[in-house]
TrEMBL record:
GO terms for cellular component: extracellular space; lysosome. It comes from Daphnia pulex. Residues 24-80 form the Cathepsin propeptide inhibitor domain. It holds the Pfam family Peptidase_C1. Belongs to the peptidase C1 family. One of its GO terms (biological process) is proteolysis involved in protein catabolic process. This is Peptidase C1A papain C-terminal domain-containing protein. The lineage of its organism: Eukaryota, Metazoa, Ecdysozoa, Arthropoda, Crustacea.
Length: 289
């Protein structure tokens, strides 16, 4: 799966939101959490977002269950979010780049529209002129094509996945979403990527896959083999959350190899150390039409 990187880096600044310090300090004391200034700002933002969800839920009189803070309140996990479609399978086609491009677009469209609509990877495989169909590509090229070439992304239902290179069948009547703005995030800045995940739900990333990755089944992936600079980046995936376990920070990464692979289709990859080069080419969809 050859990947090409063709667009200039656009650094996207994401503001940190400040809120009630008391609840946050109480929470940290209760759970024995201590962070440096950078981490504290991010964790606090996560905590406040969770706090809003909990307060809203518990204020609804019809609720039959209650929520409360626990040790996970400062982490982010969109795996069960209503705007994240079920994990898909690219099959024997090097179209990872198309799957990596479509998930954040579906998520952004759903956040705006309120309902999830499945969009078409096959549209990109067949029609996107800057990449190589089943032989590889880049998610940012796909977004460029959707925004400026096709003027929209086809609905999955009208342009279903075949895992083959076929001739382009796209017509404008198939469009289910349009991109307004997207960009590359600052490379090698995990904190900034966390902010983007927090704000935007999912971000596209490229990684180097080596042998052990194919057989990953659980835990935080930290093989040194994929850090090797002589092995090129060869896969594209999507970050949908982050957390910490067993004294290691991780990204929650959505793959496109079906739910039978990894943790129901997901992998935890070590965060903050550019593991498998995952922090090299992060990109995000900022707005949809
Ligand atoms: C803050 O702590 C995190 C996690 O321990 C670490 O990765 C990061 O480098 C630290 N940042 C600073 C500015 O010390
Ligand atoms: C409870 O009521 C709120 C509106 O107050 C509504 O949005 C929510 O869907 C209801 N939940 C259930 C479980 O009925
Ligand atoms: C959401 O999308 C559906 C189907 O594309 C459309 O009919 C509806 O008007 C959209 N709703 C909003 C709030 O944009
Ligand atoms: C698929 O199409 C691309 C051009 O978009 C071409 O480079 C590639 O060789 C084709 N692959 C197969 C398996 O036909
Ligand atoms: C990394 O991103 C954070 C959050 O956007 C920002 O405050 C910080 O300045 C960035 N670090 C560098 C080295 O640019
Ligand atoms: C992404 O995050 C930025 C920064 O908070 C925000 O301005 C933008 O509306 C978000 N876009 C989506 C699609 O979530
Ligand atoms: C943490 O360690 C436990 C026990 O070894 C393991 O079951 C779990 O998968 C680990 N979690 C992560 C995210 O690494
Ligand atoms: C990196 O990969 C190259 C090519 O596969 C290999 O020859 C080399 O031994 C690897 N280096 C390390 C440190 O594993």
């Amino acid at each position: 799966m050859k990947l090409l990187f063709a667009f200039a880096i656009i650094v996207i600044g994401l503001a940190v939101v400040f809120g009630t310090p008391d609840a946050w300090n109480e929470y940290k004391n209760k759970h024995g959490k201590k962070f440096n200034a950078t981490d504290d700002a991010q964790r606090k933002k996560n905590f406040l977002a969770t706090d809003a969800i909990i307060t809203k839920h518990n204020s609804q009189k019809n609720g039959t269950y209650k929520l409360e803070h626990n040790q996970f309140s400062d982490m982010v996990d969109y795996r069960t979010h209503a705007c994240l479609s079920p994990v898909r399978d690219q099959k024997q086609c090097g179209s990872c780049w198309a799957f990596s491009a479509i998930t954040p677009l579906e998520f952004a469209r759903c956040k705006k529209n309120g309902t999830l609509l499945a969009l078409s990877e096959q549209h990109l495989v067949d029609c996107e002129p800057y990449d190589y169909g089943c032989n590889g590509g880049w998610y940012t090229n796909a977004w460029y094509y959707i925004k400026n070439g096709a003027l929209g992304s086809a609905k999955q239902s009208l342009y279903p996945y075949t895992a083959t290179n076929t001739t382009c069948k796209f017509t404008s009547s198939m469009v289910g979403a349009k991109i307004s703005t997207y960009g590359n995030l600052q490379p090698l800045n995990a904190t900034n990527m966390q902010l983007a995940v927090q704000s935007n739900g999912s971000i596209s990333v490229a990684i180097t896959v080596t042998n052990s990755f194919f057989y990953y089944s659980g835990g935080t992936y930290n093989d040194v083999a994929c850090d090797n600079k002589t092995i090129p980046i060869n896969h594209a995936v999507v970050i949908v959350g982050y957390g910490a376990a067993n004294a290691t920070n991780y990204w929650i990464v959505r793959n496109s190899w079906g739910t039978g692979w990894g943790q129901a289709g997901y992998v935890f990859i070590q965060r903050g150390v550019n593991k498998c080069k995952i922090e090299q080419y992060p990109a995000v969809i900022l707005s949809v039409v």
